Fold:
Amino acid sequence: MEPLDIFAANIRRLREDAGLTQEQLAHAADLHLTDIARIETGQREPGVTIAAKIARGLGVDAGLLFENVRP
Structure:
């Protein structure tokens, strides 16, 4: 799997584990629902600021978003 695909799957898994919808995560992360949807499907590669917002919205350390991501 490509790094972006793993990153996207991690976000989706963490969101689902937290019992959040994409809309709820978007609200918690102060992002638009479309942003979350595109990131989770690998259509958008977020920068550091967006990744940090997602981690904060999920209530997890940002490192978990990159779990198993290898260059």
